Automatic annotation (TrEMBL):
Protein name per the record: Sugar fermentation stimulation protein homolog
Domain spans labelled SfsA N-terminal OB: 24-88
Domain Sugar fermentation stimulation protein C-terminal as annotated: residue spans: 94-227
Gene Ontology MF terms in the entry: DNA binding
InterPro entries according to UniProt: SfsA, SfsA_C, SfsA_N
UniProt superkingdom: Archaea
Pfam families: SfsA (PF03749), SfsA_N (PF17746)
Stated family: Belongs to the SfsA family.
Length: 245
């Protein structure tokens, strides 16, 4: 994995919030109830994870307003308070964030590449990116990480069969002679290391470690959200002495 911190402080995406609110409850995966300017409003949650450490009654959240009549809700959740910091919580923007990282040779873990293709089908899956560099192929899958425990970034925060299949696919590509990597968007910029969340998804963790042993590279990018900008803060390392395999 890459630990270089060149380009630290570079703004990846500008995404200012339109209103603050107080989180009340989450009726389902995609909807939340938030107190905004003294009024209870339904807001869209664009993240299938549990986010239970971020979305709980009484926590302060950040919202984006969309005046589109086709939408069921005009508000969308983009951030939540955690230990005094804002954590970006909208997975809709993972594509643009990851694309900007990969296209910027200064901060990309792969440096300058010759070609970037998005959403490339492999078997029964689609892998987020296929990079070409010096005639070699590098397959890259992107995952967003919003869970932190004891200064450790953890993924996933809920069981993810889809995520496990992606890792299995990356391992197969390595076995066929290509290079594969995970780009983890870690929205807790002060963590010390990253590891799979064995406690919440043992199968994903098993696939992850098997793929690591085959040569999978993992690049956990640290991203800070200040309520206006998403800022690149370098890369963290992979946790050691956690997995016994």
């Amino acid at each position: 994995m890459s630990c270089h911190n060149y380009g630290e402080g570079k703004i990846i995406l500008t995404m200012p919030y339109d209103s603050k609110g107080i989180f009340l409850k989450r009726p389902n995966r995609f909807l939340g109830k938030v107190l905004i300017n003294g009024k209870e409003e339904l807001v869209h949650i664009h993240d299938p994870g549990r986010l239970s450490e971020l979305l709980y009654e009484g926590n302060e959240v950040l919202l984006k307003e969309y005046n589109n009549k086709k939408r069921k809700t005009k508000w969308e959740l983009i951030g939540a308070k955690y230990k005094g910091n804002w954590i970006f919580t909208n997975s809709k923007f993972h594509r643009v964030i990851s694309e900007r990282i990969l296209k910027d040779a200064e901060i990309s873990p792969f440096g300058k590449v010759d070609e970037i293709r998005a959403e490339v089908r492999v078997g029964k899956s689609r892998i987020d990116y296929l990079l070409t560099k010096n005639g070699k192929r590098i397959w890259v899958e992107v995952k967003g990480c919003t869970l932190e425990e004891n200064d450790i970034a953890l993924f996933p925060d809920a069981p993810t069969e889809r995520g496990r299949k992606h890792v299995e696919e990356l391992k197969k590509l390595i076995e066929k002679g290509d290079n594969s990597a995970l780009l983890i968007l870690v929205f807790h910029p002060y963590v010390k290391c990253f590891t799979p969340n064995e406690k919440r998804d043992e199968k994903f963790a098993e696939s992850y470690w098997n793929a690591i042993n085959k040569g999978l590279k993992v690049h956990p990018a640290l991203l800070q959200y200040d309520g206006k900008n998403i800022i690149f803060k370098g890369y963290t390392s992979l946790c050691k002495n956690i997995h016994k395999g």
